[in-house]
Amino acid sequence: LAALERQVFDFLGYQWAPILANFLHIIIVILGLFGTIQYRPRYIVVYAIWTAVWVTWNIFIICFYLEVGGLSKDSELLTFNISRHQSWWSENGPGCVRKEASMSGIKGLDNHSYISVIGCALEYRYIEVMHSSFQILIALVGFVYACYVVSVFTEEEDSFDFIGGFDPFPLYHVNEKPTNLLFKQTYLLLYPAGFSGMEIMNK
User: Fold this and answer.
1) Which residues cross the membrane (predicted)?
2) What is the pLDDT of residue 110?
């Protein structure tokens, strides 16, 4: 649900890189849930690996909006340089008032308007940082849970293998008939009923 919520607001802000990342994340989460329900440890392992990638991505988003390491929140990196859109929260955050001022008096900018945002209770970059931090927290919890589920499934499979649950035929065929029973069956085949002991001795 948190990923879907984030996807909606990234769509509103035309943030194409986060949109793609969120889409992949939703697919992997569905895959992990399917693996848990259907007892498919491999799918859960894929989800666990993806959580590491997802945490790395969200750390990058945090660094991007906090402008760490030469990154700039005003760059077009998240929109693949297709547009100059920013986060939807930059104009629609809590308390933000969006104003448009006509720029018709400036040469070359007729019929354009300047948009200013004032009164925001919380700057939009901190909202994005909180979103990413929450995603990291969920991913860490999901990673721990995925490792636990895989370990439980593995133990169940090992115990089932131990009692021969997955082997249609045993590797070694053990004859469970006692030796005296085998001797008795051989005797009856060689000397069918109707022969006395003396006849057998005479033969």
Assistant:
1) 16-37, 44-68, 134-153
2) 45
CA quadruple 117, 122, 125, 127: dihedral sign: negative
Is 169 strand, coil or helix?
coil
| CA 12/CA 79 separation, integer angstroms | 12
> Is the distance from CB of 67 to CB of 59 less than 8 angstroms?
no
Residue among 137, 132, 131 at smallest CA distance from 58: 132
> In which residue ranges of the chain is pLDDT below 70?
101-115, 158-203
3-state DSSP assignment of residue 181: helix
User: If we measure between CA atoms, which residue out of 61, 60, 115 comes closest to residue 92?
Assistant: 115
Question: Three-class SS of residue 116?
Answer: strand
The CA distances from residue 155 to 44, 48, 130, 139, 166, in Å, are 15, 18, 38, 24, 14
